[in-house]
């Protein structure tokens, strides 16, 4: 996929694409044009709320080239969702209760066994992307004592997917089981020894 001409527009394109894919799963019977319009409106409101903390600029509507990009990206997200939707257990924008100094947060997609994060970037995946998903794994573990079996990173911009077993990632990085990792995580985010 070609590089987006204006990287400052990547946020509205990515959020709209994600919202379109979500609505396609949830709003059967809606016309695609209605889904696209709703998804763009929701993305605009979300992003303007974030931007208003720093600047008062309005987000301009998507142009034809950007809508084509949204179509390609949302289709990759949607197709990926169909692929992992085991027993209709797909949850878009799952929330995770906070723990220690970490507040309530929202992921991109989950099933009973997998946590999925979409990274709409022109770079390769980074360790920080895996760290983010490991935080979600720990928060989920402390909510219901279950761990996600797999972490999946998806880049709908580049068409790249990285899948890794959670226990193998934690063992390869720290030489411990996931349970031990989660309890160490809990200690660091809940104790007063954060600066150790």
Strand content: 5-15%
Task: Tell me the domain tally.
Answer: 2
What is the share of helical residues? 40-55%
Tally of DSSP β-strands: 7
Instruction: Compute the number of helices.
Output: 6
Helix and strand string, N-terminal first?
A: HHHEEEEEHEEHH
Key attributes of the depicted protein:
single chain; alpha+beta; 5-stranded mixed β-sheet; 2 domains; two-stranded antiparallel sheet; about 200 residues; 7 strands
Task: Please outline the helices and strands.
Layout lengths: L9 H17 L5 H20 L12 H21 L6 E2 L2 E2 L8 E2 L2 E2 L3 E5 L8 H18 L5 E6 L4 E6 H9 L3 H13 L6
Parallel strand pairs: 5-6
Antiparallel strand pairs: 1-4, 2-3, 4-5, 6-7
Helix pairs in contact: 1-2, 1-3, 4-6
Structure description:
It contains six helices and seven strands, in the order αααβββββαββαα. It is an alpha+beta fold and 196 residues long. It folds into two domains: 78 residues; 100 residues, no CATH class. The strands form two sheets. It has a five-stranded mixed β-sheet. Strands 2-3 form a two-stranded antiparallel sheet. The longest helix has 21 residues. The mean pLDDT is 88.
